[in-house]
Amino acid sequence: MTLIIGLTGGIGSGKSTVSRFFSELGIQIIDADFLARQVVEKGQPALREIEQHFGHEVLMSGELNRPFLRELIFKNEQEKLWINNLLHPLIRAQIVDQLAKAKGDYVLLEAPLLFENNLDKLTDYDLVVDASPALQVKRACARDGAGEEVIYAIIASQIDRKTRLQKADFIIDNNHLARSALEKIVQQLDTQFRKLKN
Where does ATP bind (predicted)? Predict the structure, then answer.
């Protein structure tokens, strides 16, 4: 059996960089965000349902207008609930399917909402990449070009930092790490995870 390690962290924590380092070590990454994008691609039934629900403005050149939808659901709890009820079962089914096919000592399930969506029920251990909210906002604004207000709203919609850390089996404190130091930590964790398997 392949060991399943959940990888999560708040927006701007550096989770994607950590994931990339694991990938460079030959570890298979199952990316919940990537699967979430797949289920709403052009021609997918879920995209038609979203269009019927929100109207044509939610599409741009036949594809999902993500910034428009994000603004919409962060201001409206009911709409957020509707979209989650539609998409989460579809995404979870894809994740379960990919985990069943995974090979190697361990596989990483990268999911920003690992705990919020109870995806940790599918994992053996969970790794949290942590950063202070101020640093999260600074990084996310620089990366996404979004306003601070939007980033703070996303942070507020995610599980609180203290609870996330309590649920973690492994933590990377990514507040002031250089890239090389972060890469070294990933290499050490890779060794640990392989030992857990054996």
Answer: 12-17
Asked whether the beta carbons of 45 and 149 are under 8 A apart, the reply is no
pTM: 0.88
Residue 185, Cβ density class (10 Å: 0-12 exposed, 13-18 middle, ≥19 buried): middle
**Cβ atoms 129, 123 nearer than 8 A:** no
DSSP helix/strand/coil, 175:
coil
Residue 15 annotated as binding site: yes
CB 48 within 8 A of CB 128: no
pLDDT digits (tens, 9 = 90+) for 40-99: 999 899 999 999 999 888 998 889 998 888 888 877 889 989 999 999 999 999 999 999
Neighbours of 170 (CB within 10 A): 16
Residue 13 assigned to a binding site? yes
**Cα distance between residue 14 and residue 143, in whole Å:** 11
User: Is residue 17 marked as binding?
Assistant: yes
Nearest in space to 189 (alpha carbons), one of 21, 29, 15, 32: 21
Instruction: Give the domain ranges of the chain.
Output: 1-28+106-191, 32-101
Tracing tokens 């703070």 back to the chain, one arrives at 152
Query: How far is the CA of 17 from the CAs of 1, 49, 76, 192, 198, in angstroms?
Result: 27, 33, 31, 19, 27
